[in-house]
Amino acid sequence: MQNDNGSYRSTTDLLDSHVLESNKLVLPAMERSTRSSLDGNSVEIGEITESPDTEYMSTSAILHYCKSKILLPYLKILTIMGLRPVVDASNSSKLAICFSHFHSAQVAVFMCLGYILQYMACFRRDRGFCYKLIPLALTSSYEYDVYKQVCYGNVAFTYVGPSVLHFLGFFYALYLFRIADNEQLQNLMERVFLLSSYTPQGMPTAKPKRLLRMLWFFIILSILWMCISLCSVNLMMAKGTIMFRWMETSSSEMILGLKILLILCTLIHDMVQATVITSYCLQAQLLQAHLMFLRERLLNRTITPLNWMREISEFRKLLKYLNNDLAPAVCLFTIVNISWATSGIMWLLNLDKVDTGTEPIAGISILNQFLWISAVIVPFIQAARLSAECRRAQGVGHELSARPFLHRDTSAEDIGAVLAYATSLRLRAKLFHYPVAGRFVCLLLTLTLIVLFALGMSHYLQ
Question: Where along the sequence do coiled-coil regions lie (predicted)?
Fold first, then answer.
């Protein structure tokens, strides 16, 4: 993992090369301002008095555009989830630092409380509220006086195991974003936005806008996922009487408070998971754009072969962070999501040998399974797209050799060095420490459709 000083020097080098090679126009509306700190890394940015036009933005304006449009809003989301400090420890009082730690601890407490409430209410994320009443005393042949609430399913596999893995995913993400390296996303965004803004001969470009829209697409998609999950939980709760273990004799006000607290804690569970998965998708998208822009610059002769190989070496470090540091948090959530999706689908197909009394809620139960399946598939799709871009980078040497007129001033030694270096690249996005490729994802989806049709033909989907 790259340290902060190394990341800053690398970003500064990219800034210098960008300024030297760029012949863009500078907007008259831009005024140079004092140095602005961005979570510990100070860069000189331009203060935009009007809405910036990304077609003719200078280097400082690009950094300001990146910071104001995507970086700071997303860092605020991480702060709300307790994954980043509320204040900068180096420039804050002890009281503010204590409040920052208290906020993260508060999120952790609500998550643990949510696991307990889910067990008390027999609430399973794969199918909803599942419990049965067992009579304790028979007073007549027609009615029972006292009942004991029993949850369907094994406690260890149904509640304890998934809850522990889910909390470990949060705890690891907390360590990764808050303690280990909290500048990775910032440095990566700055580098990619600078590369996206460069065009030869000062021609206008809309790449920063397209990149921004793609990043916000994943954020909006995660927010939509959380809203749908919240609606499904509320609809499940509205479809019957909810009983809390050990609280059967409590007042109706207490039961209502527990229901509200259950909804709130479950929402926090989903927000934490969606934030971590979204962070993985954002960094995978940025790395894909990073490699694509480097390939375009080499083919267009706007970067020397030696500098291109240096940038690829920096890309290796960024990809290593994604595979070895961020991916394990996503894998922990993916294990839980796959378990919930598989269990829920088997329950919908009446393959559960014990829980035969709980009836699926029309539409809501299917929607619930769709949520977990989508949370599983999206990271694999992003990893497959990044791996595909890595494979295209391996062929850049052959593309360079196929353009003799454009690269007639490039020596044969440089072209041969790029060809040998690119061919030797072994860059892949990994999940569960296994390279993810698009062909494997397509094969998995094909097998899923085959199984779906087979189950339908066998009358399991009626």
Answer: none
